[in-house]
Amino acid sequence: MSEPPGREMSGYGGYGRGAPSPYRRTESANLADILERVLDKGIVIAGDIQVNLLDIELLTIKLRLVIVSVDRAKEMGIDWWEHDPTLSSGHRDMVEENRRLRDRIADLEAGTDDYQEEVEEYYEEDRRE
Amino acid sequence: MSDVQAPGSGFYVYGVTRGLTGEEVGDVRGVSGAPVRLIEKDGLTALASEVSLSEFGEAALRENLEDIEWLESTARAHHAVVDAVSDGAATVPLGLVTVYRSEERVREALGARHEEFARALDRVTGRTEWGVKVYADVKQPEAAAPAGKEAPSRPGTSYLQRRLVQRNTAEEERRRVLDVAEYIHCQLRDLAVATRLHRPQDPQLSGEQGWMLLNAAYLVDDTRVEEFGDAVKHLTRLDPDVRVRLTGPWAPYSFATEEEPEEEVEEAWQGS
């Protein structure tokens, strides 16, 4: 990510205190810069509400887990779902195939198989002739 | 400030300031979009806003602080208030989520810590914080790479020797950019009243790739800001492999407490 244009290092003017500064742009300040300051710095005093702030280091570890996208995970070699048969599309075909095979076996065992019927009909016709 | 406090609410305090003219707060909003209230005690002013304890109570915070979006919007709101006010009056930021049950409790805290706040304000008055980050687009050193200098001289080891040369070249490159970063830090330190070194940032958070060599904050006198900026600009052109990023001016977050006194370099640059 490149710095937003307003934060580029150009045009240093004589902006002391009170003078408008081209850099004071809260919205565009990098989240990492803000968090390392508001979480880790400043005067820490105990208010009336007990809080356990996450240390910035712990936070980034946590974030890493949240932010990691699928693409990034693949880059990192995390692609277990592609090999997990219960998640891959190839497996769904196999399930379908198994279901068809089981149906066919059941049909055969029950003697209701279409093919069987056809054969029987054929013989019956043969006998009538 | 004559507002009546809503039941089940508290006061979120962003920072402590001194010498406000009243214009600084303007229409800046705090967390949950609430207007900023000024709570005063003995010449110190707490920047606060009313918050609902259903969001900022202990139980709620335990959950909310785990929610990165909540954390981000709260951190940005916190920063927005501190940022707006510190532009016009010396301000010491407080840590994120400092909440009191009533205005009276905020006043008590101001009174109890008057000396600490006053000292901190003295330290930062007429000064701003500037962030300088230095990156290099070289590979980060792998864990505990041995310094290996002497390669074996038998013929069968030429492959290993080649590898060693490659590694040494990379190692030299890393040392070189580290030297550049150190040089940059020394140059800027001489222009600052104080410095703080922050931990390198996680690329996931900063969005910045490359090896972070330096993440420093400098407290700079208003009279030297221009000089500091020029120095950074100059140092940016020092080495094509090294990138320098300047941010600021920040409210003096990194200098609110009196840590790292050895980093005080006032004497160093005055003596030079």
Please specify the SSE layout and strand pairing.
The complex is a heterodimer of chains A (129) and B (272).
Chain A: H1 31-38, H2 56-67, H3 70-75, H4 80-83, H5 89-110, H6 114-128
Chain B: E1 9-17, E2 37-41, E3 44-52, H1 53-56, H2 58-64, H3 68-86, E4 91-93, E5 99-100, H4 103-112, H5 114-124, E6 127-136, H6 158-189, E7 194-197, H7 203-206, E8 211-221, H8 225-236, E9 242-250, H9 266-271
Describe this structure in words.
Chain A is an all-alpha fold and 129 residues long. Chain A has 6 helices and no strands. Chain A has helices at residues 31-38, 56-67, 70-75, 80-83, 89-110, 114-128. In chain B, the strands form 2 sheets. In chain B, strands 1, 2, 3, 4 and 5 form a 5-stranded antiparallel beta sheet that branches. Chain B has a 4-stranded antiparallel beta sheet with strand order 7-8-6-9, with helices on one face. Chain B folds into 2 domains: 9-124, no CATH class; 127-270, no CATH class. Chain B has helices at residues 53-56, 58-64, 68-86, 103-112, 114-124, 158-189, 203-206, 225-236, 266-271; strands spanning 9-17, 37-41, 44-52, 91-93, 99-100, 127-136, 194-197, 211-221, 242-250. Mean pLDDT of chain B is 86; it is low at 143-151 and 261-272. Chain B is elongated, with a radius of gyration of 24 Å. In chain B, a hairpin with a 2-residue loop joins strand 2 (37-41) and strand 3. Chain B has 272 residues and is α+β, with helices and mostly antiparallel strands. The interface between A and B is large, with 52 and 74 residues.
